[in-house]
Amino acid sequence: MKDDNRISNMKKRPISSDLDDSGWLSNAFFMRLTARDVFSVVKYHPIPCIFAASLFFFMAVEYTLHMVSSSSPPFDLGFIATRPIHRLLDSKPALNTLLAGFNTVFMGMQMVYIVWAFLIEGRPRATITTLFMFTCRGILGYATQLQLPEDFLGSGADFPVGNVSFFLFYSGHVGASVIASLDMKRMQRWKLSV
Q: Are 10 and 29 in contact (CB under 8 A)?
């Protein structure tokens, strides 16, 4: 706490009083930081430090990756990670349809909860968030239309039915379930939120 106050007090000092004939660089804020100040930031504010480290990591990744050629399929780590599940569902169409049906029921349950929170409990937050999310999803899905993978396993039991207006990114099912789960946590409905 003492270290945080020290840094915030350093910020409060007017910059104009620090300017003199020796130049602005010697009086810059970062020049007054000690090793103790830096370690305090790392200790008390780890999340921004993680973001800063990840910035450099992903800059290195971005500049070392080559673009996927136009003759190759898009690279998607999710498809690679779920390849064994895909093979299983491809070999058992009935299981694929059953799981697609469960997915639709799950979607229906979360939408009922979100509408219930608004109409019955009078709490519009989850409903407004869901409307905003699906509006953004519709705009992004229309603006970025990706090719349907050749090995896509569709099912008549999945919602939306068929491959009509199917947006590969991002999942409305996941978005609505996160909104419902966060609302349940806010209301301390811990078992439902899980």
A: yes
Tell me the C-alpha distance between 127 and 104, whole Å: 19
- Separation CA 31–CA 183 (nearest Å): 45
pLDDT digits 0-9 by tens, 98-139: 998 898 898 899 999 999 999 999 999 999 999 999 898 888
Residue 155 DSSP class? -
- pLDDT tens readout for residues 149-164: 777 777 777 776 655 5
Cα–Cα distances in angstroms (integers) from residue 5 to residues 44, 45, 49, 50, 80, in the given order: 12, 13, 19, 22, 48
∠ CA(12), CA(18), CA(23), 5° rounding?
140
Say what the pTM is.
0.60
Alpha-carbon distance of 148 to 129, in angstroms, equals 28
Residue identified by tokens 């480290």 is 53
Q: What is the rounded CA–CA span in Å between residue 117 and residue 111?
A: 10
CA 59/CA 132 separation, integer angstroms: 31
CB 133 within 8 A of CB 176: yes
Query: Residue 82 is encoded by which pair of tokens?
Result: 């779920």
